């Protein structure tokens, strides 16, 4: 199991936590962010934010799980995505 924790770099506040079975999506997000691409982040209520990458850290949580902490400068987005509930 892989855990992604997204933090607001200015306040060190935990913004969002997501769990993944494989690290592929996490690694893709890290690579895109490191290239300077603006990341669009969603809070638990579905509001859209923009995130400018600052740094990240990785460490083992247990013998078979890993935590990825990503730090972003987070701002409320002027454009809000429409999320459709299933």
Structural account:
By secondary structure, the chain is mainly beta. It has a single domain (2-76), classed as Ubiquitin-like (UB roll), CATH 3.10.20. The chain has one helix and five strands; from the N terminus they run E-E-H-E-E-E. It has one helix at residues 24-34; strands at 2-8, 13-20, 39-42, 48-62, 65-76. A five-stranded mixed beta sheet has the order 2-1-5-4-3, covered by helices on one side. The protein is globular, with a radius of gyration of 13 Å.
Question: How many domains comprise the coordinates?
Answer: 1
Strand line-up across the major sheet: 2-1-5-4-3
From the coordinates shown, what is the CATH architecture? Roll
Question: In total, how many beta strands?
Answer: 5
Helical segment count: 1
The portion of residues forming beta strands comes to over 45%
**Poorly predicted runs:** none
The mean pLDDT is 93
Instruction: Classify the oligomer.
Output: single chain
* Structural class determined from secondary elements: mainly beta
**CATH topology heading:** Ubiquitin-like (UB roll)
In percent, how helical is the residue content?
Answer: 10-25%
Distance between the termini: 25 Å
Q: What overall geometry do the principal axes of the alpha carbons give? A: globular
Elements, N to C (H/E)? EEHEEE
> What characterizes the major β-sheet?
5 strands, mixed
The CATH class, by name, is Alpha Beta
Rg computed from alpha carbons, rounded to a whole number of angstroms: 13 Å
